[in-house]
Amino acid sequence: MIPRTLFSEEHQIFREQCRALFEKEFVPQHAQWERDGIVPRSAWQFMGESGLLCTSVSEHLGGIGADRLMAVTMLEELSDLGLSGMALNFAMHSEIVTPYLVKYGSLEQKERWLPAMIRGERIGALAMTEPGGGSDLQRMKTVALPDGDGFRLNGQKTFISNGQLTNLAIVAAKTNPTEGARGISLFLVEGERAGFSKGRNLEKIGLHSADTSELFFDDVWIPAENLVGEEGQGFRYMMQELPWERLQLAIVAVAACEAAVRWTSDYCREREAFGRPIASFQNTQFRLAELRTETQIARVFVDRCIGLLLEGKLEIESAAMAKYWTTDLQCKVVDQCLQLHGGYGYMREYAIGRAFVDSRAQRIYGGTNEIMKEIISRTN
Ligand SMILES: Cc1cc2nc3c(=O)[nH]c(=O)nc-3n(C[C@H](O)[C@H](O)[C@H](O)COP(=O)(O)OP(=O)(O)OC[C@H]3O[C@@H](n4cnc5c(N)ncnc54)[C@H](O)[C@@H]3O)c2cc1C
């Protein structure tokens, strides 16, 4: 295996501590949370008390001021343990919503909201997608029009991760409906604001422990101080944040591939057919050799992208390549590993069966893989 050189000893210790905590606190309860379709607030509070939410926020705002590699190790361990829904929703809170506040929020917004997000009391969501479309964000219908010292928000969002639990959503809305990208602004919307309501917890085919919802905004008044950054800059902010968001999906994808191959190697050594372990068939050996090779290639590319991100040099195009290629690979690897499990692979009791349905969303959210190819094509 090609050694990973990005991580220090401190990262390795952090990784081991996270894994031990997740194995003890989350793994035994995860099947129940999948049946419930949601992770309880107590798990969020546990993450907060353990200092594992929003780890990159600086110490003077209540965080631990860690580098992004701490977040990477956490994502990898959650994914490796098959806690894919939790990886998605914790990352949404800590590494997708929080950076908007850190980078574009006012000092007042940061001081007001970040400590509560770090403690897991305020749970973040990012509401961009609407029932009418997610790929073409410039045509969103949700509007926030000037009203007194603030804005009046009307519209609807769907497929929103953390949608049931969120009490601090960043909502994208048109402040100038006649403009495209330049008409979009971002707003912080507290859960208790009058006119903000949530639809049902959507029934997904996988990622069952991740709550995903419709959100409704019916004449919600938002004070001007809840505007994130500058009016009309929301689309630009979203485009700036997408490379890291997409790289996180690639990080999850590679960790999921590694786990699937490992589970399958173990299974094939145990399971017998025709009086011998299925691991002894050449088809099994070659298939696992192929999947391990492709996973290793993905690992090297994604690690390089992580390195570029740390240097502030990850371009939108490379992040799109990483997202599209690794999530396609994830679906292929998990499917072929499931095949090697035979009928047991189709049972939810087996991690590979759950990974199969969990993996499918990866090619859709964060921008579909077709949109990734659109982005890459721009520099053909
Ligand atoms: C589990 C889950 C969690 C999610 N979490 C969030 C969240 O927290 N916040 C949020 O805002 N959204 C979230 N989403 C929404 C997700 O980002 C959108 O589903 C995604 O961007 C696609 O939008 P859409 O579903 O409207 O599909 P559409 O935009 O309708 O696309 C349908 C199909 O058309 C293709 N297509 C569209 N345009 C083009 C084009 N120009 N060229 C070629 N093909 C094209 C797409 O690739 C796709 O195959 C989540 C989705 C899921 C499944």
Q: Could you explain how this protein is built, in words?
A:
There is one protein chain. The protein is an alpha+beta fold and 380 residues long. It has three domains: 9-123, Butyryl-Coa Dehydrogenase, subunit A, domain 1, CATH 1.10.540.10; 125-232, Butyryl-CoA Dehydrogenase, subunit A, domain 2 (Beta Barrel); 235-377, Butyryl-CoA Dehydrogenase, subunit A, domain 3. The protein has eleven helices and ten strands. It has helices spanning 9-25, 27-36, 41-49, 68-80, 84-104, 107-119, 234-270, 282-310, 316-340, 351-360, 369-377; strands at residues 124-127, 143-147, 150-161, 168-174, 184-190, 196-201, 212-223, 227-228, 272-273, 276-277. The strands form three sheets. Strands 1-4-5-8 form a four-stranded mixed beta sheet, covered by helices on one side. A hairpin with a 2-residue loop joins strand 9 and strand 10. Helix 9 (316-340) runs antiparallel to helix 10. The protein is globular. The two termini are 32 Å apart. The model has no long low-confidence stretch (mean pLDDT 97). It binds flavin-adenine dinucleotide.
